[in-house]
Specification:
heterodimer; A: alpha+beta; D-amino Acid Aminotransferase, Chain A, domain 1; 25 strands; B: Arc Repressor Mutant, subunit A; 2 domains; 8 helices
Chain lengths: 504, 214
């Protein structure tokens, strides 16, 4: 039995064994993409570990060999004082779920290895920053009360792997599986890869890139980038990100490589894709790939465009659009092309709201007598409830899509944007600040609870289903079903689906 | 009537209830405090005279806390905690509460949004199998949450009110009044949100320090 598989184009195991993240990395290898070397500990090990409380027989030896191979491939030593190897350790189930341990970065940076990295790079600040990121991600992964970090790299690796496996059984993860019909014995894989350092100076960084705009479906690369930072900062929204397009100006070679990668990946999946990437000293690395997952107008536009581009045929385009997509496409959205975007957070309750900025619940309640108000808060507490009730929409700087604020706003049926990370609320000065701009209380803003945009003034709003793409898709549907009578959009799509399901 | 040491005075109970539920009418304050409306009104008038609360008239009116009321509550509620010697118990309960809070917010979100094909969309409540699954998870959660509430109540009697209100909300939801999960001022989530606030205020933890993503 083999428990561990190197990340390479030759691996034959399925996504069930490797987890979807690991499988995606194998696909990237096959496409010739730059992927940091590493290996996958498969999902079977997790099932065994959870059943017996220990690693299966033979895993230790395999792990030793896998680490040795990785050391040979990188000409480095895990925890070594010269040319140290540092690795990332990530969970990789066939689906990602809340509560699972996500990532430990820079593992292997013992005190000796950190000193070695400082000497090798001539950049002690970078080495120390990397070690600190390791310590904080390790402590977070192991949970409170177990903060002692061993100074032995292999021991760190063992503990990190255990932490990933144990996180499979957190109450949050269990709940998620019950809700989504995921078997409890599926297990997660663990991905161990040589680190690439986005925090190694100005010509390094990290980001997320979509091959097409996930909000509109437009065929323009979209995403976020951070210079001189490491991956977790993007995902957790802890740091201030820049629009992806800045990469084109600052790192043209990385930008060109990224565009080429996105195009090749799209060609493989025949769908819109996104990648997590890092660049170190001007060299691009791809860390994760996802395909599809768009909704509403964006999904419609991508399906029609892909058919026009010849990547899929019209039948496939029709099959990719469900009545649910049509439903979501009716949700009002801000037309972002000409909009004056103040900041962006995460949409957590769909819909568009426009109103005057209010920075406290009391002011929101008072101002609401004269017209609609958007309550903007750092976070919300029960003391904000009457303001939430009076407001047309809510923005919070902190809190995620499952925060109290998001739950309450959804219960009230109001659009909400959360995690608008670069937004600060100054109650005393009665203003909010973002992106170097100051917006006074009483200024009109518009928020989009799907895309997470916060826009100054009253931008154009896309409502109903007036998209040309929708009409083209429905025309294809009618052509297929041979029925041109005047019917509901959902019926026209369903008739085409019925024809397609009868054809091989 | 003499108070046992674990019993909060009516005056502080009314002030603190308002601190934890936010701007509200008499009925909601009385429900949170577990006192008759007439008693609550009398305490509110005293508190208003001291400048701790203020009343806004009108259809959307009610009682709200002033800055001085907020400060006074922080001092008095911390004083009570130490007088009774319950700080350790409440701090331990808060440690147990934190992961439960994350879990409850997941459940509320699962009730409101449903992930299909990797995309979260509003739950239209057209799939009884899914909804009853979420409701069962709420019930299971309720049992585990009640253990923490029981520990809190044993340390400080005023916490008993949360047990009563949470149980009431869940019982009603289970009997078909589904808006008692997240959609009302006396829903399970709203009461839980107030308990969260209460623990933070009682232990003097600023909300921005508490679990960064909540």
């Amino acid at each position: 039995m083999t428990w561990i598989h190197p990340l390479s184009a030759e691996v034959e195991e399925t996504a069930n064994v490797l987890g979807s993240k690991g499988y995606g990395l194998v696909v990237l290898h096959r496409l010739g993409m730059p992927v940091p070397p590493g290996f996958v500990i498969n999902t079977q090990v997790c099932s065994d570990f959870l059943q017996n409380g220990r690693f299966p027989n033979g895993l230790d030896d395999e792990l030793t060999n896998a680490v040795a191979d990785l050391e040979a491939a990188t000409r480095r030593r895990l925890g070594g004082s010269e040319r140290p190897l540092a690795v990332s350790v990530r969970s990789g189930g066939s689906v990602s779920m809340p509560g699972m341990m996500n990532t430990i970065l820079n593992l292997g940076l013992t005190t000796e290895a950190t000193a070695g990295l400082a000497v090798e790079t001539g950049d002690p600040r970078f080495a120390i920053d990397s070690r600190e990121r390791f310590l904080s991600s390790f402590a977070a992964a192991l949970g409170p009360g177990r903060a002692e970090v061993p100074n032995d790299a292999r021991r760190q690796l063992d503990l990190a792997i255990r932490a990933v496996f144990s996180s499979w059984d957190t109450p949050r993860a269990k709940t998620y599986r019950v809700l989504h019909d995921i078997p409890h014995d599926l297990g997660t894989a663990v991905i161990v890869q040589a680190m690439v350092f986005g925090n190694r100076g100005d010509h390094s960084g990290t980001g997320v890139a979509f091959s097409r705009n996930p909000n509109t479906g437009e065929r323009t690369p979209f995403g976020e980038v951070m210079f001189g930072r490491q991956g977790e900062d993007v995902v957790s929204g802890r740091s201030i990100t820049r629009p992806l397009s800045e990469l084109a100006e600052r790192e043209p070679a990385v930008w060109a490589a990224l565009l080429e990668a996105l195009q090749r990946i799209e060609g493989h999946y025949r769908d819109a894709c996104s990648v997590e990437f890092t660049f170190e000293l001007g060299r691009l690395w791809i860390l994760q790939v996802r395909s599809g997952g768009l909704d509403g107008r964006a999904a419609l536009r991508v399906a029609v465009d892909l058919a026009d581009e010849g990547l899929i045929d019209r039948r496939e385009a029709l099959l990719r659009i469900s009545p649910r997509h049509l439903g979501s496409a009716r949700t009002p959205r801000i037309a972002t092309d000409a909009a004056d975007i103040l900041t962006r957070g995460l949409g957590a309750s769909p819909g568009v709201a426009i109103g005057k900025v209010a920075t406290t619940a009391d002011r929101a309640a008072r101002m609401a007598a004269d017209g609609p108000v958007i309550l903007v808060r750092p976070y919300t507490s029960p003391l904000d409830m009457h303001g939430l009730a009076a407001a047309a929409g809510v923005v919070t700087a902190r809190g995620g899509p499952t925060s109290h604020a998001a739950v309450v706003a959804r219960a009230l049926g109001k659009p909400v944007v959360v995690s608008a990370a670069d937004l600060t609320v100054d109650v005393d000065a009665a203003c909010v600040r973002a992106g170097g701009r100051i917006v006074a209380e009483g200024t009109f803003i518009t928020i989009d609870g799907t895309g997470g945009e916060v826009v100054i003034g009253s931008p154009d709003i896309l409502t109903g289903t007036t998209d040309p793409q929708l009409h083209r898709l429905l025309a294809w549907a009618d052509e297929l079903s041979g029925n041109n009578s005047h019917r509901d959009e959902g019926e026209r799509l369903a008739a085409a689906h019925a024809v397609l399901s009868r054809q091989p | 009537m003499p108070h046992s040491s674990r019993q909060t005075s009516s005056n502080l109970l009314v002030l603190h209830s308002l601190r934890c539920i936010g701007f509200a009418g008499l009925a909601r304050i009385a429900d949170a405090a577990g006192l008759p409306e007439s008693d609550v009104e009398s305490e509110l008038i005293d508190l208003a005279r001291a400048g701790h609360v203020s009343h806004t008239p009108g259809d959307f009116g009610g009682w709200g806390l002033t800055e001085s009321g907020r400060a006074a509550d922080a001092v008095r509620i911390a004083g009570e905690l130490d007088t009774v010697g319950a700080r350790t118990t409440v701090a331990q309960a808060y440690d147990a509460f934190t992961p439960l809070n994350t879990e409850l917010l997941d459940l509320c979100t699962a009730w409101q949004l449903r992930i299909v094909d990797g995309v979260a969309r509003p739950n239209e409540h057209t799939d009884p199998v899914y909804d009853s699954r979420v409701l069962d998870l709420f019930t299971d959660f309720g049992h585990r949450a009640d253990v923490v509430c029981a520990e809190l109540s044993a340390a400080l009697t005023r916490f008993e009110r949360y047990r009563v209100r949470l149980t009431e909300a869940l019982t009603r939801a289970r009997s078909g009044e589904l808006d008692y999960l997240v959609d009302r001022f006396d829903s399970y989530h709203t009461v839980w949100f107030q308990l969260h606030e209460d623990l933070l205020v009682t232990l003097g933890i600023p909300r921005d320090w508490a679990a960064a993503d909540r």
